[in-house]
Amino acid sequence: MKLYSKVQVGIAVAVSVAVTALCIAGIIFIFNPMKAKSSSTLATPIETSGKATADSLRSSGQTGSSQALSAQAVPVANISQYSGGYSSEEAENISIYEKYNESVVNITTEVLSINWFLDPVPQSGGSGSGSIIDEQGYVLTNNHVVEKAYKLYVSLSDGSRYEAKLVGADPESDLAVIKFTPAAGKKLKPIPFGTAKNLKVGQKVLAIGNPFGLERTLTTGIISGLGRPIQESETTILQNMIQTDASINPGNSGGPLFNTRGEMIGINTMIYSPSGGSVGIGFAIPVDTATRIVPQLIKDGKVRRGWIDVQAIQLFPDLVNYLKQSGKGAPVESGLLVSTVTSGSNAERAGLKGGTTAVRYGSTVFYIGGDIIVSIDNKPVTSIAQMYSALENTSPSQQVAVEFYRGSRKMSIYITLSERKK
Asked: For each of the chain's 422 residues, which pLDDT tens digit applies?
């Protein structure tokens, strides 16, 4: 083993320290200028131009910022992504939601049921959505949301809950208006009505509602179809329905369907779903229907429609064959056979004829030999539901053209409509 003196050890340590210091200094000298250069050429212009872009969005006439962004190969169309972090489509969705989500209410109901002692007992009913349409507290929703309700409650976005009352309902359009009285100083923001007349398949739409009780949920999609007739019951066909793939689930009923301008173009009503959940086929009532009937619901509590005072039977194959065999047939296999005409009615005065020979089909008794109606107001009529549909937009005292067969002869008359009785 070789031994070293203290002087030799001191010199070795000093040399080692000096070499280490020189290495560190060399590393700093080599890499620091590259870092400085990189920062000055990449970070500074983007940060500076980004700030100028935000300023230019708040004031006019400052164009230098957008030129700086172009120099860095950033598309001008995407400036909003750098200033707010959102794409233009996202910003559009956010804007509509933030503006109108507080105008969409959650509607819950109580209904009466009968207990074992045959006493009426209130219990929780269904729930749905509604749109505030007036600062006084009027809310537009679906009739099926509030139908048979014993009590109605409206919940707002701030958590407040109000008892509401039914103002008017129209089962044939599945629309209803309810009203609550907001607290003093509470300012409501109504949703503006647009129109469904110029809609196109493929157009973007947004829906806000309360699916499964999850309040003020936003979904987006497109218009998948227009003018869909949906038969809701034996006598009711909802006409011109808007089909959309925007997710609509139980609880969305009565909520608004928006266009990208933030206008209500429809009232979300139903879904087609084998499973009970959204499968991308939802339907909304055109807002034009609401525009037409809401004033009547607020004023009269109902919609007054015209009617032809007859009892009619829809033609079916067995009946068509029987009419031919009895010599009372017509050269058509579809239409409405007039069984009776109300005595003294406008239909009788106009000359419409009912049957004279009573027949029985199953448990139903009616008369044959009368006129067979094939169109009303230039709309083909082959079923009772289509008769209701043809007269859906009419009013009492209005005249409509009615085409019918009397035997083999086709005839046309004008009938002044009566008021339809509920």
From this structure: 344 454 454 555 555 656 556 555 554 554 454 444 434 333 333 333 333 333 332 333 333 333 322 333 333 334 344 356 888 888 889 989 999 999 999 999 988 777 676 667 666 778 899 999 999 999 999 999 999 898 999 999 888 999 999 999 998 889 999 999 999 889 999 999 999 999 999 999 999 998 877 788 899 999 999 988 887 766 677 888 999 988 888 888 999 999 999 999 999 998 776 666 666 788 999 999 999 999 999 999 999 999 999 999 999 999 999 998 888 888 899 999 999 999 999 999 999 999 999 999 988 999 999 999 999 999 999 999 899 889 988 999 999 999 999 998 999 999 999 998 86
| Spatial distance between the Cα atoms of 134 and 156, rounded to a whole number of angstroms | 14
Specify the number of domains making up the chain.
4
**CATH number of the domain bearing residue 160:** 2.40.10.10
Does residue 367 share a domain with residue 396?
yes
Furthest-apart CA pair in the chain: how many Å? 141
* Residues 167, 298 contacting (CB under 8 angstroms): yes
| Residues 373 and 330 sit within 8 Å (Cβ to Cβ) | no
| Nearest-angstrom CA–CA distance, 169 and 167 | 7
Continuous H helices in 315-410: 317-325, 346-350, 384-390
C-alpha span between 344 and 365 (Å, rounded): 23
Instruction: Judge whether 188 lies within some domain.
Output: no
Q: According to DSSP H, which parts of 207-316 are helical?
A: 287-300
d(C-alpha 36, C-alpha 38), whole Å: 5
pTM of the predicted model as reported, rounded to 2 decimal places: 0.69
Residues forming the active site: 144, 174, 253
- Quick one: DSSP state of residue 190? P
